[in-house]
Each structure stands twice: as structure tokens, then as C-alpha cells.
Write a structure and sequence with these properties.
Blueprint (H helix, E strand, L loop, with lengths): L8 H9 L4 E5 L3 H9 L4 E4 L3 H4 L11 H14 L4 E5 L9 H15 L3 E5 L5 H9 L4 E6 L5 H4 L9 H17 L3 E5 L3 H10 L4 E4 L7 E4 L1 H4 L16 H17 L6
Parallel strand pairs: 1-2, 1-8, 2-3, 3-4, 4-5, 5-6, 6-7, 7-8
Helix pairs in contact: 2-4, 4-5, 5-6, 6-8, 8-9
Bound molecules: 5,10-methenyl-6,7,8-trihydrofolic acid, 3-methyl-2-oxobutanoic acid (KIV) and magnesium ion.
Length: about 260
């Protein structure tokens, strides 16, 4: 899937059916979108993790719908053919299907993105169905759901007990039946992610969920080594934080010593 045609939900479904991996990456703005897409990312997820990696919050809870729209519109301006998904932020969709519909309409109209993502399983199935029946592409997200960190108290692995594992399997089926077009599986055992992937028709997108998912996603800043620290499941493939720091400190030294401009 490396041509320039527009990526759609159907592209991702076809890839699952052909057993081809797809690559998702978060993007924050037009620059990160262009870099990610040029390097081969097929889906750009404007994750609410941007509240932590770009906006300096200590969780994703303070992120607002307007902030998500602002960043998503920039990502849309920076992409060429990638599918752009916007995380609906905490508080913008949990109250009712109608509230989720209004938030989705605002995001789709004001940013030009392609799909919305919501956290939650069986308890969000009515909302997913409400949106899907009205023509909205919805990505679901189960396992570790960071917007519930105040309830669970940590970002630890989910699906460790048998009970939790069967609940997550039920969640995956419920969001699939409700019409979700893809399903993010975050920080769950690889074997569980593997059985979920085999038991649902829609593509699964793993982050900390092992190799047997249909797609993988990471947070842009973690992947390039720009974050101060990474989750245990997110390896840094470069040390961009050091590269940037070195460039800036060389320039600072040149300014101080009168060697800039030359
Ligand atoms: N930069 C960044 N990358 C992410 O992947 C990310 C964010 N931010 N912000 C929102 C959430 C939070 N995420 C996290 C953060 C920490 C762990 C982590 O350290 N997990 C440990 C256990 C931690 C604990 O028990 O408190 C683990 O072993 O799973 C996992 C996911 C994933 N998401
Ligand atoms: C890591 C992905 C799945 C996410 O929800 C985010 O970046 O906010
Ligand atoms: Mg998120």
C-alpha cells in the first residue's frame, strides 16, 4: 500500500483481509503529518496524547474539543493521501450518542478529517451505532483507555485476568457489531490481542498489544525520541531530542562567541 491513492476505511479492511499490515502514527501538526506520511504512515491519528506531548498537561483529560480541532485541521493541511483520524477528547462524547454526534460533526466539518476515535467497549456500542448509522466513520479503542486513568489509577496493562479477557473479547465484538471501522487495542497481552484480531472482521490497531494485530500505532514523539520518557511498549528509533538540543546549543555557542552570523 505505497501508492498515492487516498487511504480510506475500505483500504484498511482490504489490507486485513489480505493479511497485509498497515501503519498508523500519531501526528500533531502539519509538519509531523508531512514527515510521517512521506515516511510511509498510512493513517495519521491526531491523538489526545498531544495534550501530554505538545501541550504540557500531565494527562489527556484537560484536552478540549477546540484544541483537537485546531491540531487536526493542521494535520489535514499537511497530509496528502493518508487517512486522518481525530481522537474525541474526554467529556466531548460520553454523555450521550447525541453529544458524540455533535462533537463528531464539529470535528469533521471544522478540520476536514476522515474519522473520529472514541474510547470504550460495550458501554459505548449504542453511541458507535448512532454515529455509524449517520454516516460517520468511527474507530473504537479498548484495553488501556487513558481518559479513564483517574478511575483505574494507572496506565498499567489491561486484560490480565480471565474475567477482564472475556470482557475485552465481548467489547471487541460489541463495537464491531455496532459498526466501528477499526479497533485500537492498547497495552493488553499479545495473546489476547491475537485472539481479538482473529475474532473480529474489522482491522485491529495495536499499541503495546503484540505483533499479531492488523496494524500498529505509536506516538510520533516516542518513535523519534522526542519524548522525555516513553511507555515500556514504545521503543525510540532515533534520538531527535538530542539532535535538536545539539543543534540549538551549537548555535547558542556561536552567537555567544560572535561566530554567528558568519
Ligand atoms: N508520549 C505518550 N505516549 C503514549 O503512548 C501515551 C501518552 N503519551 N499519553 C497518553 C497515553 C498514556 N500511555 C501510557 C503511559 C505509560 C504507560 C506505562 O508506563 N505503563 C507501565 C505501567 C505503569 C503503571 O503501572 O503505572 C506498564 O508496564 O504497562 C503506558 C501507557 C499511552 N499514551
Ligand atoms: C496512542 C493512541 C492510540 C492514542 O489514543 C493517542 O495517541 O492519544
Ligand atoms: Mg488517545
Amino acid at each position: 500500500m505505497t501508492n498515492n491513492s487516498q487511504v480510506t476505511a475500505a483500504t484498511l479492511l482490504r489490507a486485513k483481509q489480505r493479511d497485509e499490515k498497515t501503519v498508523w502514527l500519531t501526528a500533531l501538526d502539519a509538519t509531523s503529518a508531512a514527515i510521517a506520511e512521506a515516511a510511509g504512515a498510512e493513517v495519521l491519528l491526531v491523538g489526545d496524547s498531544l495534550g501530554m506531548v505538545s501541550l504540557g498537561f500531565d494527562s489527556t483529560l484537560p484536552v478540549t474539543l477546540d484544541q483537537m480541532i485546531h491540531h487536526t485541521a493542521a494535520v489535514v493541511r499537511g497530509r496528502k493521501s493518508a487517512w486522518v483520524v481525530c481522537d474525541l477528547p474526554f467529556g466531548s462524547y460520553q454523555k450521550s450518542p447525541e453529544q458524540a454526534f455533535d462533537a463528531s460533526v464539529a470535528v469533521l466539518q471544522q478540520s476536514g478529517c476522515d474519522a473520529v476515535k472514541i474510547e470504550g467497549g460495550a458501554h459505548m456500542a449504542d453511541t458507535i451505532r448512532f454515529l455509524a448509522e449517520r454516516g460517520i466513520a468511527v474507530v473504537a479503542h479498548i484495553g488501556l483507555t487513558p481518559q479513564s486513568v483517574k478511575k483505574f489509577g494507572s496506565y498499567g496493562k489491561r486484560g490480565k485476568s480471565k474475567d477482564e479477557q472475556s470482557q475485552l473479547l465481548r467489547d471487541a465484538k460489541a463495537v464491531t457489531d455496532a459498526g466501528a471501522v477499526a479497533l485500537v487495542l492498547e497495552n493488553i497481552p499479545a495473546e489476547l490481542a491475537s485472539s481479538i484480531t482473529a475474532s473480529v472482521a474489522i482491522p485491529t490497531v495495536g499499541i503495546g498489544a503484540g505483533v499479531n494485530c492488523d496494524a500498529q500505532v505509536l506516538v510520533f514523539n516516542d518513535l523519534v525520541g522526542l519524548s522525555e520518557s516513553n511507555p515500556p511498549f514504545a521503543p525510540a528509533y532515533a534520538d531527535v531530542r538530542r539532535v535538536m538540543g545539539d543543534a540549538i546549543s551549537s548555535w547558542v555557542a556561536d552567537v555567544k562567541s560572535g561566530n554567528f552570523p558568519k
